[in-house]
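Below: protein 1.
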Amino acid sequence: MSSPVDASTATPAVSEQVDSGLAIETTGLTKRFGARTALDGIDLRVPRGSAFGFLGPNGAGKTTIIRTLLGLTGANAGTMKILGRPVPLERGQALRRVGAIVEEPRFHPNLSGRENLRLVAAVRGPETRARIEPALARVGLSDRAENKVKSYSMGMRQRLGVARCLLADPLLLILDEPTNGLDPGGIQEFREMIRAMVEQEGRTVFISSHLLDEVEKTCDAAAIVDRGKVIVQGPIAELAQGGGVRNELILSVDDVELALTTLGASELVGDARRSDEGLRVELVGDPQTASEVNATLVRAGVGVMRLEPVRHSLEQRFLEVTSRLDAKPATETAKEVKT
């Protein structure tokens, strides 16, 4: 259900400067439910002005950390800061500039989208009412604002949930599985909306998700969580690379043995081995050395039919570090990882 934690009375402009370069910061955050540890010493750093993915299988602790950050459940140990303010000590001040959707957003089904927002604005002050139309425009619902919410698709209800968050003019939006139930077109629209909020408006958007492909396409940085622990976090490109830069090629050649011998003797190559795709070659140095590797093979009499850089994906990295997937067949897709 949606949580009205974005309530605000008098809110300054989005460009307001705060005392921390991080939108969310946790240290040793721990939450237990009886004998089960849902969050196990979480250290999380979410940069301001970014789209940040909190990525993990269902049941990994994603919703629990959101509820803990928002004060909807208490932590057993550790510290938290939201927009530079300690939580729960200064929870009220911190959440004045936060909008959140926890699980599925709920509305009065027999009221229109605009009427639902007016109800929310009525308890927040006159300046909030002035944000209704811009919020509807931002999420693409201006043309459907007079329709009853019960006629809305899942994607429209998700967008109306974001519009409700925007009434607080938030610096930070926290969204729990926001693309669940959306069709491909809806997912694309949602992705564009999130990027506009970050790039054009300077907001921070924290997205909890198990959809690897969407996190990779939408977010600037991410943390991978499993069994209540953050396994790794950082910029998307660095996560995909596995913490280091690996310049690799896939080669198809007419003489595999001669190619392996030639590559093994080359100072340009760190490793060369067979793979299902052909030969997988790790370069020493920058990607430009690929042309020199090709020339070396040709001079040795090897015919090269294919030379293609390897694109490292977040999916591959997820499979490497997430213990829950260890037993899954290598052919199984991880575009939607569920446990």
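Below: protein 2.
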Amino acid sequence: MKYLISLLLCAFTFQTKAQTFKNPDSLFNPAPYGFSHVSSVKTPGEFIYISGQSGGLGKEHFLNPDFRIQVKTALENLKVILNSYQLKPENIMKITILIVDHSPEKLKIWEEEISKVWNGKPFPASTLIPVPKLALDGMLIEVDAIAFKAN
């Protein structure tokens, strides 16, 4: 019986030494939408709080009017920050996405692009917030995150 319970828990839980990602069976499967229902971290380690990254490219912060390009750029900007801590996207425990004039089409683009970046790894816990406007004219997306680096 103990083996069966462990086997069932493994089917809905992904765990590393410090990180656990869960999608309880009684809730809908969030993987196609690019997130997990819950993530947790056992310390010791370091939490990294990443400010909202836009789809602005480079130091000039060029904002392409194409939503998909801004999504890709925002995700690349997150990876730059993660790399500065020698981390990868799978170290992100919680992500918040703000999308201007959110629509099913924009959600599909987000799902496609986040799936490419996570590439089969467990998705972080996630909140998507539709907004009418962001800090700068032309910003279509902003993504902030909390990552964890184990000691």
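Confidence is low (pLDDT under 50) at residues 1-11.
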